Amino acid sequence: MPTIESNNIQSTTSEQKSPQTKNSVPIFEVKNLHLHYLTRFGEKIHAVSDVSFSMDQGEVLGIAGESGCGKSTLVNGCMGLFIPPLKPTSGDVLVSGESLMNREPDEVRRNVLGRKVAMIPQGAFNSLNPTRKIKDLAADMIESHENTKDKKEIYSRLRERFRIIGMDESILNSYPIQITAGMRQRSVIAISTLLNPKMVIADEPTSALDVTTQKSVIKMIFELLDKGVFSTMIFITHELPLLRHVAGRIAVMYAGEFVELGTTDQVIFDPRHPYTKALMGSMLSAEPGQRQRKPIAIEGAPPNLAKPIEGCRFADRCPVVKPECKKNKQVMRIVADRQVRCQYAS
Amino acid sequence: MPVETDIFNAKNVICTFGHGKKLVKAIDDVSFGIKDQEIVSLVGGSGCGKSVLAKIMLGLIKPSSGQFLYKGNEIKNLKTHWREVQAVFQDPFSCFNQFFTIRSQLKDSFGIFKKKPSKREIEDRVDQALLAVNIKPPEIEGKYPFELSGGQMQRMLLARIFILRPRVLIADEPTSMVDACVRANILDYLMKIKSELKMTIVFITHDIGLAYYVSDRMFIMHKGKIVEHGSPDDVALKPKNPHTQQLLDDIPDINKKWLEREQKVLNVVE
């Protein structure tokens, strides 16, 4: 089975132009991150390749991409949580300049999760132990990180936090099954941000909810952000229209790579990478005249990441593919003030 | 020619769960008719009763009171009912048995017919159905449900519809688990099914934008009642009911203001 050696990848990584910022140390930084899964046949699946970005205090970065493009793998990478078969190949993740790499999963859970980086998962129901009340689940979070055993103090802290975010205190005394899906997701958000983390990574927090509940959950997330519970967030979703409203910058991911990274207006209204353009074409909205326009589906499937891919990963599905695309390694380059991974983008 | 009867006809249908103080009216006095070969969407938020209505249409729940007719008759024998009324659900993984291959399960679906076709014909029809949803039969040969992606599995459910060729299809949030580009794909196949098999489709969704695309008529539901109905253009573009307006407002649209908050743009590449 042919596999890519790690040093091989490193030699071909793109040179990142360092963003111009006021602070010298960004709050969160990912440098040329490569992650792979090691299968039991000794195969390496390169789920995330050459991802680099940095974030400043107060920023919301949106990451968009279809299922299986490596969004959730990247989330685990950003937390430094490498549970086999996931392994880092190369690269670095820094929170305020401190590296999260080369740590044991247990240490990550104790020292990183919750305080430095917190994660909001997609399926709230799977994240809550059905046999315990919300307040016990939340108390666990404090107890396991802070060595406080005083239940009274913990509960009063919980009530205070729930009051701030406008949730009813009676929720604390309920079991996960007794409350609605929206409430469950809100409880999960409240619990994961209890320790005032620096960074929050929201992995499709609203995909399982209906539109009305989605809006109220998003509002709550931003309330927490505005009240200073946390300041910086990565928001992951496959809904580009949603990112238009929540993110300041958007990264579009395809087959483990960022293909376009720019401000929201740039990516949504003026996409330059063929994949981003195709994504925008598959959107639906209730507007006059839109009924006659057929949503354009992108034909084909993403490439198999177990095999080394020489050229552009989107080449097989690209509507404007050129013969060189399959040979030339694509690197991020600056096009119209944003980064695009396409040599023909202009 | 006799007078054309509606595919579904509901008259003052009420469906309740629980009793006493905990009585919940899931469907509250609903009346409507759905004509042959029509695409009707039921739109509403979680808990508005749209899935209960779908279950009534499938005969899985009997209405507590009122009259619910399929082609002028009450639903009695479920097996004969399901020969004509079939459904596509939200989560394809929970619709297939994990322990059998997909192909064998597709073949099993022939069991609903009165007379099973010959083995040869079954194989041929499964192949045809797979090709209809753009999957080459060897691609799923010997594969189990967990080996396929969500989009592929959703297409398997649609392939099943091509095999059974029902008169009515009830699509209960068929695209809410898949991403945007797969969604466009699934909708394409749904429209293909509709035009090839001349079916009536009841499309259930919480996304009014999606309903606007596919349907001939839209029913907006709220708390068990149908609060607004009409053509997609009337309902989505000139909504009269506040609940419809709410549903429209809650969809994040790229051209409309959605959150009362401006996003900070930092870190621009120079």
Verbal overview:
The complex is a heterodimer of chains A (346) and B (270). With 346 residues, chain A is of the alpha/beta class. Chain A folds into 2 domains: 1-10 and 20-104 and 239-284 and 295-305 and 322-332, P-loop containing nucleotide triphosphate hydrolases (Rossmann fold); 114-199 and 209-235, Rossmann fold (3-Layer(aba) Sandwich), CATH 3.40.50.300. Chain A contains 11 helices and 12 strands. Chain A has helices at residues 6-12, 71-79, 105-112, 124-127, 134-146, 151-164, 181-192, 211-226, 240-246, 264-269, 274-281, and strands at 28-38, 44-55, 60-64, 86-95, 98-99, 117-120, 199-203, 232-237, 249-254, 257-263, 333-335, 338-340. In chain A, a hairpin with a 2-residue loop joins strand 4 (86-95) and strand 5. In chain A, helix 5 (134-146) runs parallel beside helix 7 (181-192) and helix 7 (181-192) runs parallel beside helix 8. Chain A is globular and about 70 Å long. Residues 1-21 of chain A have low confidence and may be disordered. Chain B has a single domain (8-250), classed as 3-Layer(aba) Sandwich (Rossmann fold), CATH 3.40.50. Chains A and B meet through helix 8, helix 9, strand 10 and helix 10 of A and helix 7, helix 8, helix 9 and helix 10 of B.
Strand content of chain B: 15-25%
Distance between the termini of chain A: 37 Å
CATH class of chain B: Alpha Beta
Widest sheet, order of strands of chain B = 6-7-8-3-9-10
Mean pLDDT of chain B: 86
- How many runs of DSSP E, i.e. beta strands of chain A? 12
Quote the average pLDDT of chain A.
Answer: 84
Q: Give the CATH superfamily of chain B.
A: P-loop containing nucleotide triphosphate hydrolases
Short description:
In chain A, 30% of the residues lie in helices and 21% in strands.
